[in-house]
Amino acid sequence: MDNKTTLQLGYVDLHSHTQASDGMNTPAENVQLAAEAGLSALAITDHDTVAGVAEALAAGERHGITVVPGVEISTMEDGKDIHILGYYMNIEDPVFLERLAGLRQIRDTRNEMILEKLRGLGVEITMEDVLKQLGRELLPDESIGRPHMADTLVAKGYAEDMRDAFNKYLAQDAAAYVSPPRIRPQEAAQWIIEAGGVPVMAHPGIYGDDALVARILGESALAGLEVYHSDHSPEDEQRYLELAEQRELIVTGGSDYHGERQGKVFHGALGSKRVPADVLTRLLERASSQA
């Protein structure tokens, strides 16, 4: 059976996170979970880094799982955080890696701003507390994210669980939320294309502004839309499916799995949102047409 035929079989979860960003599991553990969930393919899409992809590719060979090199880039448009997924980039492209490193520096700045705002609210946690709660050394090219801070807020009694920590302090418009200047979605899409990949807008339902979603899609080189996501309702999925079809975008989907914290899976269990694996053929064809 050739590779193209293999890519047309089964199902794929195109959105998962590992310890390379703010997930709980190693890349290899995510691949093992994909095999246990009956998937034929899995994308590793860590925030502003591709550091977990190589380990996942090796694990994919062992488990018979196709691993899709991916990334999730943090951007901003009209004051809203917008996330852009990228698939099939050259993960060794030096320009792309340098650009991602710059984004992680912004993330580090944001983390210090959040901690300062928390302290102003009487919530006494430090980066040392966050790293202690992590319980391990940071990996190369790994950065601390809001879920790590949420873990610490729960451990120190400032929140009941992960969702409570986000609702009180860390989500957009919550008490300690901050968002330093970031690149625009259009620029992130271009970075992904220049690295040989295919850019897709992540979880449009989270942004609460379909007019903004439509405008970004119209002003950028985005090739796809994440229609199926753990935080989308059936009504969201139908609406975004129609939008994707109207604009002839590639329809993608994924769980946005981050692992289990305080006994709860965040956002959804790996493989709980999946799309037919033949979407990989469309992504690869798009990547080839841009080369």
Please provide a written account of the structure.
The protein has a single domain, classed as TIM Barrel (Alpha-Beta Barrel), CATH 3.20.20. Residues 1-6 have low confidence and may be disordered. Helix 10 (234-246) links the parallel strand 6 and strand 7 (250-254). Helix content is 43%, strand content 16%. It has 291 residues and is an alpha/beta fold. It has helices at residues 3-7, 27-36, 53-63, 94-120, 127-134, 146-155, 162-170, 185-194, 210-219, 234-246, 279-290, and strands spanning 11-13, 41-44, 66-77, 80-87, 198-201, 224-229, 250-254, 260-261, 264-265, 275-276. The chain is globular. The chain has 11 helices and 10 strands. Strands 7-6-5-4-3-2-1-10 form an 8-stranded mixed β-sheet, sandwiched between helices. Helix 2 (27-36) runs parallel beside helix 3 and helix 6 (146-155) crosses helix 7. The longest helix has 27 residues, at 94-120.
Uncertain runs:
1-6
- Determine and state the CATH class: Alpha Beta
Number of helices in the DSSP assignment? 11
Q: Kindly give the count of domains.
A: 1
The general outline is: globular
The CATH architecture can be named as Alpha-Beta Barrel
| Mean pLDDT metric | 92
CATH topology: TIM Barrel
Number of strands: 10
* Strand residues, percent: 15-25%
Main sheet summary: 8 strands, mixed
End-to-end separation in angstroms reads 26 Å
Helix amount, in percent? 40-55%
What sequence of helices (H) and strands (E) makes up the elements?
HEHEHEEHHHHHEHEHEEEEH
Rg over alpha carbons: 18 Å
Strand order of the largest sheet: 7-6-5-4-3-2-1-10
User: CATH homologous superfamily name?
Assistant: Metal-dependent hydrolases
Judged by helices, strands and strand pairing, the structural class is alpha/beta
Pfam family, one: PHP
Organism: Paenibacillus bovis
Protein name: Phosphatase
Domain Polymerase/histidinol phosphatase N-terminal: 12-77
